[in-house]
Amino acid sequence: MSLQWTVVATFLYAEVFLVLLLCVPFVSPTRWQKIFKSRLVGLAVAYGNTAFVVLIVILVLLLLDAYRETRKYNASERAALPTTPGALEHFHMRLFRAQRNLYLAGFALLLSFLLRRLVTLISQQALLGASSQAFRKQAEGASQAARRYMEDNEALRKVKWGLALCGVLRASWGRLRQLLGFQFSPSHPAATARGRR
């Protein structure tokens, strides 16, 4: 394998490792968000966007070159081969290398986009988790306040009902005094004595 394809294969293996690492279930998205927001990763991202674009261009060029090589070894060229066994094996070896290089470049390109999207989704999930936790706390506070207001409202209704009952009793008491025809004050001792006679 030539140097360029060794580098592409190493890059592909590193991408596979990173994708598997990001898919580990016991590392929470908030932990990944803290790692992504660290100063070292921030510095890598600042310079990494340019490097990512350059890398994508290089991978696209290598993919096109591998596709060209694969197309070069088509059936029409196989028919033009001499019938010696060594020539046929040499043809199959070159076809295998061209196809291997095509797959290496294609999967490296695919995983680079997949890796970038996976990092974006993990960051968004961490932000959504934090905002939903804040909304949950806010909703719990609002429900506690609503419960407290409902209890206060119930207490006010009881007081209002008690005041209405007192008003009804007072009106009934006044009507009873009018019917009996005398002034009666329940707190005055003379009125109680007069009421007994």
From TrEMBL:
Location(s), subcellular: Endoplasmic reticulum membrane; Membrane
Stretches assigned to the BAP29/BAP31 transmembrane domain: 1-134
Transmembrane segments: 6-28, 40-64, 102-119
Job of this protein: May play a role in anterograde transport of membrane proteins from the endoplasmic reticulum to the Golgi.
Its membrane topology: Multi-pass membrane protein
GO biological process, one term: protein localization to endoplasmic reticulum exit site
Ribosomal protein in keyword set: no
Lineage, opening ranks: Eukaryota, Metazoa, Chordata, Craniata, Vertebrata
Highest taxon of source: Eukaryota
Family (UniProt): Belongs to the BCAP29/BCAP31 family.
Key words of the record: Endoplasmic reticulum, ER-Golgi transport, Membrane, Protein transport, Transmembrane, Transmembrane helix, Transport
Protein name: Endoplasmic reticulum transmembrane protein
